[in-house]
Hints:
Chain A is an alpha+beta fold. Helices cover 47% and strands 16% of the residues of chain A.
Amino acid sequence: MKPEDRVEKAIREEFTFAAGSKLRDRMLTRALDAQEECRKSRPAPAGPAIGRTTMKSPIAKLAVAAAILAAVVLSISLWNKSTPAAYALDQTIEALQNVRFLHIIGRDDTGRIKDERWIEIGMDGRQVRYRQQNPPWLIEQYPSAPAKVIEDGESTAVYRSDKQAVILYDRKDMQYQWVGELGKAFENLRQEGKILEENTEYQGQPAHKVWWPYMSAECYIDPQTKLPIAIGDTELSYEQPSAGTFEITIPDGYAVLDKRPGAPVTSVPQWLLDEESAQANKGQAFHDGSVAFAGGDYAEAARQFEMALGWDSWAPFWLGSAYYHLGKYDLAIYNYNKEFDIWAKSGSDSKLSYCSYARGLAYACSGNLEAAQADLQACLPDMIRTLRTPSGGQMFEYAENPMIRYGKGKLTDEVMVIKMINRLRLVSGQNFGYDPAASAEENELAIAAWEQWLADGGSINVTFDAPPVVESQE
Amino acid sequence: MLEDEVLKWQFKCGSSQALARIYDKYVDSLLTLAAGLLNDAHEAEDVVQDVFVAFARSANGFTLRGNLKAYLTTAVVNRVRDRIRRQQRRPAALNEATPARRKSQSPEEQLVFTEYAGRLHEAIKELPHEQREAIVLRLKGNMKFREIARLQGVSINTVQGRYRYGLQKLRSSLNGEVRK
Lengths: 474, 180
């Protein structure tokens, strides 16, 4: 690393001052005293309030209301004409604080609903009640998937149409979520979100476009309400759902399997016991496969991921990657194809850049250069976009390290950019001079050169011996 | 989780615990920022003290819609700039200010920093104010060049130039002292 960067790092990390304990206490005491004085000096209401007197008359009440309304309308129209307010992410965070209901609709490429959810959010920002509905066509593809899930705040009901059964769990034992902790997602938007474009459009309606790293997706914000109206291929609205949305009811002819603590002991059907046991085994195999893969034991990883198939949509991908590292390229491609199939079946965007990249390399290794070219070309735009929005490369990193799921091996933005540059060098044979030790201005030129290269048609030239950028070893 | 939003609301409602938590959370980073911008650690204490006292008094009409840390950072920067303007009108030059540490005081009564941070501070103090401001706001205030440019009333290129030249000077003045 050049000395300049060491200086920057030194200032960022080591140039820190802290208040000694007495100084800290003294300063805090003064601030608290000031707050107390301010509280005491808050003017008490004295004498008759004009507003209060005026409002006693119903006619005057209307007149005042009209005047206020006129003033508001006037100020809004003047505001609109004179100063188009700049958008800030904080406005969205603030608007989200007041959201109590979320209605989420995911659609596939043809516009079919593939996923619909309602969430009630508590004052603390946590999920209170939840409902998820999977469309019949999806259940046909995956018969053992729940047709519906409802959480009423105490219990979770999983509706299995294939077994004509409702399984009841204590909410603590079984909870469904949309994106994990909503509060974390909002905080991530505040901390790491990025406004990509103001005053653009989403499906014909005005919107601001924002990058939301937690969601790994572009998000569109309504300029009026400041609330997200779409995240990736998912639409959001905030209306209160109809009564009964979060109520657990038992459809006619359905059996009830109550697994809540304290429920009357009934015999659990064999199919449920088998399913639970199989799921537990697959889950363990998935975990063991992840550990083996991260440790470089690809034979063991392949063995475990074979057993984990069906437990998680990523299992075939990592199985493919394990075979890739074992040099079994045909098996790698076979399993990557299964990964594409899973996403296509569930109506998700079939453009899985990380999977195209992995399959492209497998094709290249197996000598099918035409297929390699097609796959690698398809993922170039996402790869290059990552150079400016590093969090866009998270899926590539996750694809290479399943332990990220378990909270290990998360990378900084800087390292994600370097790794993406290395992937680009590998698939293109190009080198535009990106260097972690160079100045921000020099690297800006390198990124611009990659963008220009893509704009000029950026052709694939797989170069396995391309010299990689070396991460700084600080 | 969204702690600052809750703190802002509690503070507005008059909670002294909220004020104490905000203070505890940000006082050190604000002191570092002020110490970096000023030549005198005691002045940095005064500035941060003033900011928190003014902040505490603002509770009644407090309507902050944005980021709390950014708000406090801006408050510190503005007060530092006011102070420097006042000092520039005074006969004593800024570089004649008192040493950064009052040797007579115990560590509990003053700013605490490592010897190395002290050396960095000495080097930063030698920079022209504009360069120092660009570097400190960028690296300790986490401000973007665009925001610093707006604050200094110059172009982004000028700020980037000040930042680069400032770093070069620091590199030569630290000359081998920077840890690898």
